[in-house]
Amino acid sequence: MKISIAQVAQLLGGTIEGNETNEVWSVGKIEEAHEGQISFLSNPKYEEFVYSTNASAVIVNKTFSPKKDYHTTLIRVEDAYIAFTMLLEHYDKVKNFSKVGIEEPSYIHETATTGENIYRAAFSHIGSGAKIGNNVKIYPQVQIGDNVTIGDNTILYAGVKVYADCVIGSGCTLHANSVVGSDGFGFAPQKDGSYKSIPQIGNVIIKNNVSIGANTVVDCATMGSTIIHEGVKLDNLIQIAHNVEVEKNTVMAAQAGVSGSTKIGENCIIGGQVGLAGHINIANKTTIGAQAGLGKGTKEGDVLLGSPAMAKLSYAKSLSVFKKLPELQKRVNELEEKIVNLPTIQEG
Amino acid sequence: MKISIAQVAQLLGGTIEGNETNEVWSVGKIEEAHEGQISFLSNPKYEEFVYSTNASAVIVNKTFSPKKDYHTTLIRVEDAYIAFTMLLEHYDKVKNFSKVGIEEPSYIHETATTGENIYRAAFSHIGSGAKIGNNVKIYPQVQIGDNVTIGDNTILYAGVKVYADCVIGSGCTLHANSVVGSDGFGFAPQKDGSYKSIPQIGNVIIKNNVSIGANTVVDCATMGSTIIHEGVKLDNLIQIAHNVEVEKNTVMAAQAGVSGSTKIGENCIIGGQVGLAGHINIANKTTIGAQAGLGKGTKEGDVLLGSPAMAKLSYAKSLSVFKKLPELQKRVNELEEKIVNLPTIQEG
Amino acid sequence: MKISIAQVAQLLGGTIEGNETNEVWSVGKIEEAHEGQISFLSNPKYEEFVYSTNASAVIVNKTFSPKKDYHTTLIRVEDAYIAFTMLLEHYDKVKNFSKVGIEEPSYIHETATTGENIYRAAFSHIGSGAKIGNNVKIYPQVQIGDNVTIGDNTILYAGVKVYADCVIGSGCTLHANSVVGSDGFGFAPQKDGSYKSIPQIGNVIIKNNVSIGANTVVDCATMGSTIIHEGVKLDNLIQIAHNVEVEKNTVMAAQAGVSGSTKIGENCIIGGQVGLAGHINIANKTTIGAQAGLGKGTKEGDVLLGSPAMAKLSYAKSLSVFKKLPELQKRVNELEEKIVNLPTIQEG
Asked: The pTM is what?
């Protein structure tokens, strides 16, 4: 987005010293910003960069008094750091909520309903009976299956696919090409060695303020619902299997995987590439380090590392010995030799 | 899907006690079902829930004789469990095969052909020379490349992409945003440190009754074919590299990865996040635990754990000592001290 | 693609012995090629297959003198191996650059611009202010966000999504359903246990000749740019987090994951399912084995294995003892018993 320096100053309640008609269209750190970017000076350590920066504008404290010449435009505000944060949030809001209206061709079944102020991009597809709230943004090539419900202010980026009957809350963000409601992986072995698929007739329920990363998959329940509770943040390329339940405000880093029917408590922190077995209970406030593997449940507050996972401290201790195992083995060899050299004494 | 209780009863050959005009639109366990859901009672242990359930209908055995008041509608059948299974399968069939017809706009090249009774959703794209069988369901935003062949009764969910020249059998299910036939990862190092891409001119052949999970990728062969044999079930977010061959009825859990040219036998069970190196042979009936890593092939019936993988029992034994390594180290320290205290004796 | 044997011969500057009007449409190894395929004979060890092959044509050296009857058509060239490589490259070029023109319906904002000779498939979506170079191939269901820039000769396969403001160079290949520019995973914990999303206002810059695999995700920077330098090759299902920088000619195998703000040097080789922690520096020419996990940076030329990663040789040594840990434990047990049997001597 392009915005004139005068508009930025107005937004932040600041005053301008320099060119106010120039436009800025992105944001940069003062030490690396280039033309067209806006930056800020809060920490006095960075003052020197004000005099050399290529940023088109720099937000500074009201009280800032330059000691040298400068070539940029200053915007003076009460508190430069707070003003910059405000600007970021404004930028974010514009980025996410500027899209409005209906692009054609797009497809919406005659029985589906949508709220006010929505964006429905070209090549998006909304099935029968779907109910879409207000201010929802549906980017290109999104598919919303039959009877899906989506709350207000939710954003579905390009290529998101939501299978029939799923429920998505308000204020959620689903990133590009994420999938919600695909069949759970359920197959019954047959006598001839083949597998017969078990009907997956449940759905996914995503509560409010949930974030789903790009290319992440949340499978539907075999029966009932896979549930992602309020405030959960899932990074990219995560696998959530059928009938999993993730309680509120738990965050999960990229490429983690959760097997079927596992329950994850509130406020857990789960690292990247972690694997959780099926049918286990992860207690509230569990922290699991990257690449760990859990075959069983946890107690509240556990901090775990390794595959299979151990308490953090125990793991660290075992690991430090693992690194010296060849030496330990050598010491055992030497002990055995010394002991062998003792027999005459034992006879003595 | 909504269906009246009368229709359910007719489908199952049952008789109704209660309101037969109400509709049900999903299925739930008797202890947690809510209005609009249908459930069943087979195990007498759950009888108590019949009297308190919120399900709109409960399927019961003909012989069931209520001991208390109930508020739901009963559907009496010969065997409640079998009837419920029938209902699930019916539901599944309706879910998967109710879509028929052509939505516009959709794109099909004039030289492509399609069979009878297909679903071709809006924004699907079918390239030149493609041959699509009967009863194939092509969801929105699917792309089928030039000269692709797809057998009867195969379902391609929203966003599936099939590259040119690939062959997909009958009765397959490809879940949303899965990719078939992308280039294998082949690059020849050049003298200047850069890489030149090696032409990837093979294809992917997927045999009958294969299931491909959401966001899973199957690369084409460098030359020849990457082959997924009959009855193979791949979960979500799996990587199958170029020239891999997976023999029939092997199942693979989410986020597993198979490197180039590796051959996997029949009826193997491969856990989540497993990694297989390239150019190895996994024998029939190999079972590999989650997160294991295999750098070499296996023998029939092997059960392997760990990264690098070891026989299950050996791994378990080493692991149990790993957990006590600090203690083992301490014991060696003590032994060394004791030995040091022996020298006068040795001199004796 | 179908091409007559006469055309192949002309392309390779060869002469034909046999039927020159037959067509070939793919390529195979001489020992397994079938009708319609073309193969080659370079290594004399494979000569026998010329006499039995089902290939429609075989490229042979000028000097080849058959010792038996054969049923295929020969194309004689100076050097069969070089000619075959030329054919592969031709095939690859045709495969990748034959698509030209605009299919409808497709969407392009009135302010976006495109170069010459581009392919813009049905259901592709190009946002406002986007600038697309010459010979760019935009497959079906691709989305190119507002203000995105794409250089010449770049291919975006079906379903690729590029978020607003990203920059992609020339000669790049983005495979199906890959995502460029999704929000970085940044959330600030609040007092009530919930998380507030941190505005992600940066972008992604992809330099020239970069390859991005199917379903791979590259997140935008929180501020500034996530940068993938020239010649980098990323396999499928890889996660590149916000503010990561990957220097030129580094290759990364499938399902690897790189956490936020990590810098990766030039000419590194990173194995499948590797995980890199955030804010670390991977030096030039680092080699990291599959499934390794790095919590800290590396030195140039390091070769690392394991999770957490160790120098290759150290890891191999520790691992070999790990496999014999039960035996080592037993030896320590025995030493302890022997020592216990010594006390009378010590008293002596």
From this structure: 0.92
